[in-house]
Predict the 3D structure of the following.
Amino acid sequence: MKQGLSKHILIDESPGETRVAVLKEGKLSDVFMERQHRPALKGSLILAKVQSVTKELNAVFLDLGGVTGYLEGIPKPSPIEGGALLVEVLSEPINKKAARVTANFSLLGRMADITPNQTGYSISRDIKAKGRRASIRDLLSNVIPKDIGVFIKSNAHTCELAELEEELRTLLVDWERMQLDIVSGGQPKIVKPSTDLKELTDDWKKNAIVSKGKNGILFKKFNIDGQISGALESVVETQTGVVLTIEEMEALTAIDIDLASHKTAHSHPLKLAEALAEEIFWQIRLRKLSGIILIDYPRAKNLGARDHFHSEIKRIASQNEYKLVVHGWTRTGLLELTKDRLGPSLRDMFLCKNSASQFLIEVIAIEACRTLITESDGIANPQLVCSQDLKSALLGPLRKTFDEVNRRLGVEVDFYVDLYLAHDDFYIQAKKTT
């Protein structure tokens, strides 16, 4: 790794799935993924169909296209049931919970954002030169229609005005195209899709090494799957020797700290508190925990250690973009944290609901596709030996992915269902000819 760069981005493209792993100091810090059969909704603009307007809840429920959306607050004028409403998705639907949406959306640019349903403009306070601010105001008055709002970001302070004007005009053209799409009707439909993971890497490249691979080979080299499996376990032994038990529930996560497992917990309590704060924040981020998080830090003779742990968690959270809120100690002595739920947790992404170890069938199916691509060389007629559930997934919701595998291999992969295999077990063999 290049000297001075502690972040490494791994991008893996496989049939049906794109995965991104973020390594910091060689340790897995974040995982992102997009699955072809279940595209991400967060950040997309959708012309939704109004299902109901509930005055009692001051909310609107929307059909986003097979997914329910929840809009808090009834816009004016009030939407009509069966009518259309353009919204931006703020959070992915999780289990039976509807996706959160907003009618106050923006079209995002590198130096400016426009808000089609608002008016007025604002310029970042970081742009302080009066002459520069005046020039930008003149540009906005000539380019931006009065019924559209705009925000100029701080990084516009050094760009050429012509460059800023070009970006603003591009955003306006995008909005005009969306309006034509809206007028054509046909809700629910996606007017602007979610940002692709590969686009996000453009920002990451500035402070990281980016490596690209295919079919899971790069992930195997860096043991990403193994690190993900470790992050799905409820019991974690930290480098300090202290054992953490992380119990993730629907709206609450409990983290228990077992200091008894650390032989010198009382000899260096402040250093231990700092190490535990770093580790727990790392676990919260990697596992994508949200909702209420309660940490049980044992009471000890040195009460300053608990306060130091609190201060360290607060310091780390304030310096990180993860937006974790540290509230303080509850009356029962637990440290309370909260994090807005914007998407699924790591467990939601990989494991079946209410299961401690059973992987989602779609996870196994995509892994089987990767294995077929990488391990079918030399097999003229490959056959996938698997469970009925895995076969049904590949011929059902993941049919497009399976068809892509067949196209790449140049043959039609055969199935053999073994009733004794678990749903997450499979292997490849040559099809037997009679």
